[in-house]
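User: Structure please.
Assistant: Input sequence and predicted structure:
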Amino acid sequence: MTLEISKKASRIVQAEIRSMSIECELHNGVNLAQGVCDTEVPFPVRRGAQMAIDEGVNSYTRYDGIGELRQAIARKMKSYNGIDANPDTDIVVSSGSTGSFYAACVSLLNPGDEVILFEPYYGYHVNTLLAVDAVPTYVRMYAPDWTFMAEDLENAVTPRTRGIMVNTPGNPSGKVFTKRELQMIAAFAKKHDLFVFTDEIYEYFLYDGREHISPATIDGMYERTITISGLSKTFSITGWRIGYSVCHEKWAKMIGYVNDLIYVCAPAPLQMGVAKGLDQLGADYYENARKEYAAKRELICSTLDKVGLKPCVPQGAYYVLADVTHLSGNTSKDKAMNILKKTGVASVPDEAFFHEPGDRQFVRFCFAKHDDELNEACNRLLKL
């Protein structure tokens, strides 16, 4: 028999995040590996979806999403992000932010085109590029604050470079890109005529007075920037798969057509639930969420400090990378497994976030957990 999987599929492997979640189940552990975000879904979001189902909002939507959601996103983009987007031409609702990125890549990249990723990177960005026959290239940032320099960008560019991904706040690093850094990236993108893809899904999770700045707001960047986000994390609805992209209409139209071809549409009643959440939840909701996660960050980072796993304290998002260089084991996967076996707490090894080993090794912990579960995990980590 000569049947086999495709050459393209053979390059894609199961994400370490999923792998460690399975290992966690086998060890009856506490899962701080996967960013499932199991805090409560806000009432207006739940009720909005329930009412939509009851009122018959159960059919296909327009290829770029229901009008109510696109309009709600446009209002949010203007008030929070400072981006004035036309809801009828510039916004495409898709099946999660990962779906938005895939549709954008299919629309804008040719086979062999290179896209620069900052390391540590989010693994789904890599696999999405591979799935469309694009080539990821890398700029490694420097711990513990995950900084980089202009020459790092110039060293990564080639004649085949077509785009750059900016994930802010970052997964797994928790890095929040500063205005100076974004201006540096903007100048680089203009110089080399690049698309800028963003992943801003953690835009409301900010600590120590930091500000979220959307790259598209930097002078001259809207026409070349594909702003990608969603409310999966903010509303704790990761399983709903509602994401969106915002960009100039000359790109959005094709992204919408590709979205229709691949996904048809995101779930109609769940789109309505997100729209209701955007319209009904005020600034106090987002501020309370920020304070809640700041307290969770303090708990996990102080615990890691106590047990000698020096944390790179995140500036945003809800993950923390801890230095495990001194632990026994050859690879960070070995060390993550040793932590799991000794404490019953699952993390993600840094093989998931770097394309080659560095001088230091890290594991990632997710702290988007109920307080009881996070406290249990921290108590178990004290065994180290």
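The chain is about 40% helix and 15% strand.
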